[in-house]
Structure formats: structure tokens, C-alpha cells
Amino acid sequence: MTKDVAKQGSRKPKKAARRPRGGGVYVDGKR
């Protein structure tokens, strides 16, 4: 899990954790 979180820690947890929490601003600013 350390390699998955360290490598995709900038794309998986940020997108999946900020998308359902009303991360419309995060998804819109990154996309």
C-alpha cells in the first residue's frame, strides 16, 4: 500500500477523496 499511495497518492486519494466531498472545485481546477 505504501508504493500505491506514494506513487498514485497525488491522483487516486485526491480525486476519490475530494470528488464525493463536493470537490467540484478540485475536479474542475485539475481537469
Automatic annotation (TrEMBL):
Residues 22-31 have a biased composition (Gly residues). Residues 1-31 are annotated as: Disordered. Residues 9-21 have a biased composition (Basic residues). This is Uncharacterized protein. It comes from marine sediment metagenome.
